[in-house]
Every structure is written in C-alpha cells, then in structure tokens.
Amino acid sequence: MGCTVVENNILEIIRKRSSVRTYADRPLDPEDERQINELLRISNELSGPFGNIPRLELVPVNREKMKTGTYGFVKNYQGLIVGICRNFREEIIDLGYRLEELVLKLTELEIGTCWMAGGLKKFPLQSMIQLKDEEMIAAVVSYGYPEKKRLMEKAIKMLIRSNTRKAWGELFFKGDFSHPIENDDCPQISLCLEAVRLAPSASNRQPWRVVLSDGAAHLYLQHTPALQSERLGHDIQYLDIGIAMCHLQLVCQELGEGGEWYLEDPNIELPNDHIEYIATFRTKQ
Ligand SMILES: Cc1cc2nc3c(=O)[nH]c(=O)nc-3n(C[C@H](O)[C@H](O)[C@H](O)COP(=O)(O)O)c2cc1C
Known about the structure:
single chain; alpha+beta; NADH Oxidase; 2 domains; five-stranded mixed sheet; 7 helices; binds flavin mononucleotide
C-alpha cells in the first residue's frame, strides 16, 4: 500500500467520528467540495491491504427522494460516496479500508458521514451508476455538515446502542482466545487496539477480534449469522474488517510503528464455528 490520504492526529479523529444522520440543509463550501473531489481522485489510485483498488464514485443527490438504510433515515445529506467492487471477500475488505480512510479525512474537515450498507437495493442509485461486469455497490457513505440530532436519529442511536463499545476483554486476547487482555496489559499497542475498538460497524456488531502473539496482531472476524442474509447480497461484515484494518494501520503508522498486513494464520484454536482468520499485522522490525 503506497500512501494514505489522512495525515495527522489520527487517533483524535477516530475518537471524534460518529455517524451523522441529520445534516444541515446547506451545500458544502466550494473548498470542501474541491477537497472531496481531490481525495476521491487520489483514493481511486490506492489499493487496500489485499492489493485491490476499489472504485469510489461521487453522486449528486436529489435529497427529497432519498430514503436510506434498513434502520436509518438520513436527512439532508449533500452527497454520497458510492463504494463499488466485485463480490469477493478481499475486494470488500479493501473497499472498507479505503472508504473508511475517506470517512476519517472528512471527519478531519468537520464534515459528517454515515456508512450505509443495508437496503442499498432500494436506492435509486442503482440506475445512476454504470456497473461493469460483476461489479456491485457494496456500501455508500453520506456526507454533509452535521446538524443538531433529530428525535429519530436519537432513537436509532439508542436502538443500536451506537455509542457503546464492547469491553477490551471481549475483543482482544493474548496467545489464544482463552486469555482476554485488559486495557493496561500491553501499553505499546493499546492505542492501536483502542482505534479498532472505536471503529464503526454494521449494526454496531463490532465483529473484529485480535489475538496478540509472537509480536504480531492476528485479526479475526466473528461473523453475525443474522447479517449474512441473501437479502443483502454480500457479507457486509467484511467492510467492518476493512475499516478495523484501516484504523489499526493508520494509528500504528502515526506512532512511528510502520507495519504491514500478512497472511500468517497462527492456527490458534477457534472459540466457535463463526469466527474466521483474516490477516496478521506485523510492525517493521
Ligand atoms: C458497513 C457498515 C454498514 C452500515 N450500515 C448502516 C445503515 O444501513 N444505516 C445506518 O443508519 N447506519 C449504518 N451504519 C452505521 C452503524 O450503525 C454505526 O457505525 C454504528 O452503530 C456505530 O455508531 P457510530 O458510527 O456512531 O460510532 C453502518 C456502518 C457500517 C460500518
């Protein structure tokens, strides 16, 4: 992976980000508009950790008519970034990675965002994007300036408990899955893991698990069977995993611990049948 579009204070930006479903009813300033176009242009030349370059498109919206998501109504957004790839695990993960990097950049610019991957088939979008062979719209990110939250948005956030995150011990382990770690156990990489913990995920399921062993971080996906329905067409939790990979790598980079993703399955005993090894992050020695 060559370069990134986010430059600094990444952990602060990660802490600041939260999904925005109510936007101010005003267009973006021309300078912000220009920056988004430029970011998209750069991003469309960058690959994700598995080497695929996802296609990202900006779509002008007719706000009155857009109704989105299976559990979210997003109001007054000023644009959509549409994430396109083929329905392959690695391509979806790479799309999650690249699109999240844009989300963080927009957060840095004080522009609100919300990921959407549920109910996309209902979008009029399908007719606005020219899909090539095998391509699909895997996710969409709405954006605009954040507005005071509506009652509806507060209700959605409460329903999916979007402000809460699982405890460290449920997500992170040392050696194997029977040894959970607490926040202070490993200060040197605790900030990277915290960045994973704060990531957005579909229905806030937080499906990422990390096992630290042999100086590396092994990343797993704990699948939620209910989210793997035929109706969605693709496994949206691979987007969550790409997002987590993005957070971990960007924070490591900022801490001066450059590193890369490798396929090095440590063959650790898995705690259940729905957990899948994804990749291993190793810092440069
Ligand atoms: C892959 C993905 C798909 C999502 N799909 C939707 C969606 O369809 N509708 C919606 O309102 N929010 C959606 N979200 C936003 C999540 O509900 C939100 O990230 C999660 O509840 C955590 O809240 P936060 O982003 O405010 O931290 C999605 C998030 C991700 C990462």
